[in-house]
Amino acid sequence: MASNLSRRLAQNLKSDNPFRELSMFFNKDGPIWLTIRSLVKSLEDQKVNYAVIGGLAVYAHGYERTTHDCDILLSRADYEKFMAKLVNFGLKPKFEGRKKKFVFTSTGVSVDVAIEGEYPGGGSIGPISFPNPKVCQQNIDDMKVISLPKLIDLKLASHQYRPVDRAKDFSDVVELIKILKLNQLFSNLLDPAVRNKFEQILLGLEEEKQRMSDNDE
């Protein structure tokens, strides 16, 4: 999947210096970006439809925070194609017998797969499931990324199911609201199952803003 040049680049980009790693990440350099770019190219070469989700999708939509892995969404049909054409050709299972957690062999970066119809936050049945990527993708930086409304749907659904373990999902939504100045009108684009939660966050942020303003007077 990755060329010999890419392998050498990946090896050179690895560092024990956390500040250098952070700098590379925010410059869209280093193992994570090399992995997602190589993976996206391979998916598109093999005509595997996908959407980038997780931390890289959050980054693509405007909240520039780090992540340590690459997450992709596949339809059930494309998952079979992914397993046949990409696994063992640049990707290998992270653990024996695991079929949705992989390692990109040239960089050592984890690649996690979500499949259409599964449920965010641990797999239990809920009102929101992972959609077919064809209906929720947009092009950002030469990648197919999950749309912002659907990303927030999944983040809030995941947090509702596992509020402690998935606290980062809630934090991502809060930061996206603040950075993108999302408002009540945006909530109309969300699934009804999480719309009320989104509006509660908006109200909480507005109340905090008012308290800060009162304290400054």
TrEMBL record:
InterPro entries: Aminoglyc_AdlTrfase (IPR019646), NT_sf (IPR043519). It holds the Pfam family Aminoglyc_resit. SUPFAM superfamilies: Nucleotidyltransferase. This is Uncharacterized protein. It comes from the Eukaryota. It comes from Rotaria sordida.
